[in-house]
């Protein structure tokens, strides 16, 4: 008898693809009559995904949590409450890293499970830097020595602006029609503009993976203050040198305020094998699987069981304990169906301002206009 096929779509990286494939292999011993087949798309396609077409083709989708409001309101995903796993949902809520579990909720229901937890953190080469910077004065001093990298292509510069502003004590987009107050926006942009002038010019087009690659392969640079962490780079043998991830530089609120990222797993509302897909999603998000086969396949777990594991931390230069405080204090983006449109529209403006192509005053005006246009209920 042929096995039941569950089709899944994730993103092209060991963290996104190797993790779920390894877990799918392990699942055959749990459910021998089920085969989970995963495909992947690029990281950019992951961010810009057309959910409407994907839910027609796949049963399981690995998604970015800002897509949850539109998916919920358009009924693209299956709500996971009341499907026979409410006890598991309660357990997963207690095992959330920061607000990761909450980030897949909308309209009073759970639309996804935290498969992967991430926020902007810091990274350094422990073989090159005995004591990494712990505040922004120390970051700038090291940057003046030419030893710092920082990815500030549009989506990453936008993320960094949010992280710095929230760290200064003001949550962005909390007031209708206002991205940030003039004072906090100015202070945050002055800090980031100084940093942008001290790192290599090509960093304006870099993403966190590219920075991690340079850190791991070159001895010229030793540190990056703001980038999304990738536990893969902390593991032996992944690149020529290991990269250690730690909390972001301390600011007004300590290490709180980092922009929450990560990925979750959702079940298509069009799935013809919905019950089996839901069962696999819960199994994949469970503590033992996250700490076991999911991590072993290259994953960056979303479950606190894996973050507290002595095994995963020993294997990754304490990636999880070293960044946990940052994750626990992370900032979650506004819950609007149109939020992604806002982020796509204004992110390039932040990089433009950092490069001196527009003024901070012009940036503020256009950010506020974007909030007024897109974040309307």
Shape: globular
SSE sequence, one letter per element: EHEHHEHHEEEEHHHHEEEHHHHHHH
Quickly give the CATH architecture of the largest domain.
3-Layer(aba) Sandwich
| Helical residues, percent | 40-55%
Distance between the termini: 51 Å
The figure for the number of domains is 2
List low-confidence stretches: none
Strand content: 5-15%
CATH superfamily of the largest domain: Periplasmic binding protein-like II
The first-level CATH class name of the largest domain: Alpha Beta
The biggest beta sheet reads: 5 strands, mixed
- At the fold tier of CATH, the topology name of the largest domain is D-Maltodextrin-Binding Protein, domain 2
The main sheet orders its strands as 2-1-3-10-6
Q: Give the averaged pLDDT, no decimals.
A: 96
Structural class: alpha+beta
How large is the radius of gyration? 20 Å
Number of E-type strands: 10
Number of helices: 16
């Amino acid at each position: 008898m042929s096995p039941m096929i569950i089709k899944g779509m994730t993103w092209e990286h060991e963290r996104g693809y190797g993790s779920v494939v390894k877990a799918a292999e392990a699942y055959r011993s749990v459910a021998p009559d089920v085969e989970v087949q995963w495909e992947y798309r690029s990281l950019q396609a992951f961010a810009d995904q057309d959910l409407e077409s994907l839910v027609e083709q796949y049963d399981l989708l690995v998604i970015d949590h800002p897509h949850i409001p539109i998916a919920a309101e358009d009924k693209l995903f299956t709500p996971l409450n009341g499907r026979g796993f409410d006890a598991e949902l309660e357990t997963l809520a207690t095992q959330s890293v920061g607000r990761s579990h909450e980030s897949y909720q909308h309209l009073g229901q759970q639309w996804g499970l935290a498969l992967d937890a991430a926020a902007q953190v810091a990274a350094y080469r422990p073989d090159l830097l005995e004591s990494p910077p712990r505040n922004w004065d120390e970051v700038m001093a090291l940057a003046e020595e030419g030893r710092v990298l920082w990815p500030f292509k549009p989506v990453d510069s936008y993320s960094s602006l949010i992280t710095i502003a929230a760290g200064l004590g003001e949550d962005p987009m909390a007031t209708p029609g206002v991205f940030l107050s003039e004072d906090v926006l100015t202070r945050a942009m002055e800090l980031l503009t100084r940093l942008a002038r001290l790192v290599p010019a090509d960093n304006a087009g870099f993403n966190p993976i590219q920075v991690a690659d340079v850190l791991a392969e070159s001895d010229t640079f030793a540190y990056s203050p703001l980038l999304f962490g990738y536990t893969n780079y902390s593991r032996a043998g992944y690149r020529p040198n290991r990269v250690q991830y730690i909390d972001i530089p301390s600011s007004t609120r300590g290490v709180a305020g980092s922009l929450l990222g990560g990925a979750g797993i959702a079940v298509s509302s069009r799935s013809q094998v919905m019950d089996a897909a839901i069962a696999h999603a819960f199994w994949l998000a469970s503590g033992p699987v996250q700490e076991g086969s999911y991590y072993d396949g290259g994953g960056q777990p979303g479950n606190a069981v894996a973050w507290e594991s002595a095994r995963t931390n020993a294997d990754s230069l304490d990636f999880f304990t070293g960044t946990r405080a940052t994750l626990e204090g992370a900032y979650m983006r506004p819950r609007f169906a149109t939020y992604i449109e806002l982020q796509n529209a204004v992110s390039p403006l932040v990089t433009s301002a950092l490069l001196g192509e527009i003024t901070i005053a012009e940036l503020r005006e256009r950010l506020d206009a974007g909030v007024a246009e897109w974040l309307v209920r």
